[in-house]
Amino acid sequence: MIEFEFWWLLVIPLFFILGWVSARVDIKQIISESTDLPASLFKALSYLNSNQNENAIAELEKAVKLKNDSLEIHFALGSALRKQGKYDKAINLHASLLNKREITAEQESSIKAELAQDYFKAGLYGRSESILKQLKNEKYFQYSLNLLREIYVRERDWDKAIESASDLEKISGVSFRISISHYYCELATNKLMNKEYGLAKTYLKKSLDEYKNCVRANILLGDIAYEEKKHEEAIVYWKKIEYQQPEYLGLVTQKIISAYEIQNNINEALSILSRYYDLYKLKTILSSIYELVLKNEGVERAEEIARNELIQRPSLLSLDQLFQILTIKKSNEIENIELIQQTVKNSIGERRFFNCNECGFKAKQFHWQCPGCNSWESLPSEPIDITLEN
Fold this sequence. Notes:
The chain is an all-alpha fold. Among the domains are: about 5-155, Serine Threonine Protein Phosphatase 5, Tetratricopeptide repeat, CATH 1.25.40.10; about 350-390, no CATH class. Helix content is about 65%, strand content about 0%. The chain has helices spanning about 10-20, 25-35, 40-50, 55-65, 70-85, 85-100, 105-120, 125-130, 140-155, 160-170, 175-195, 195-210, 215-225, 230-240, 255-260, 265-280, 285-295, 300-310, 315-330, 335-350, and strands spanning about 355, 360-365. It has a two-stranded antiparallel ribbon. A hairpin with a 6-residue loop joins strand 1 and strand 2 (about 360-365). The longest helix is centred in the last third of the chain and has 18 residues, at about 335-350.
């Protein structure tokens, strides 16, 4: 979402060439005012460059008083207030512009767009939605649709999110197919909670129609088949992930094992997982193989797997597995070994996280949607590789 940024005032010629912010800022107006911009505005820019946001806000407030007829400086102050979490002040600032100024219809739309942003950031989604629906100005139509889509996602109103994303896709030419596929998965998840498997399957098929590589949809279809005691069908769905996005296979290894265990076919499970690990080298898969071997083939074979991994790719995870083996084998030294193993486990817990590729948010567990920036499929399916060199 595009917000007014302070440094735009310093690079007006570039913006004029690109036309990038023409929908949000009156470039000609700023150029005409550039000869008598208040000194406090430039002080604000200097403070912003050194991350002194409170001082920047103070200087912008001075600039607004000196240049009260400049909407752009008001918008800059409003943006600064939002970034500092001072949503009430931003709302009051923009509401006062609507109530006290003689403004054109276009200026009114600009102010309402800022006010909608204020309400959105403050979590007042109903008020933001109400204003956005008033923005009939063609210049803000795409902006309004996108912010409405974000509101519906926050409110988990997935039907409206699908509708707004589809409309936005048509007018912008930007693909929202991944997002829409996850909206359908969310609808399916809601139905699964009530065991409405038929409706859930319908939504999941729509998800795959929207985005054929939606791993989440096939995981859920496999989960439904498993609940319906169709274990072979469940395995088929989960295996499809290899041909969609194989890096997500670690999310279904335990599911595959469980389905094969019910069919008393552990050897097949071990064969499939071994092939997956040979091809994709996913730590989650190796951990599943280790646990499966330890349970079904015994300590010696599991120790061989853990030891080989520790030699080839040393990590806290493989070290923890080796300590587990030693705990089983060395009963007379179990207290000391368990203490060391717990220390390793604690270290793994502190350092094991999923790092969002979009915003850098660090999550302790996997999420389809980043809790930090709300991007879909931006977290890796595997946590960062914890090596002994880290």
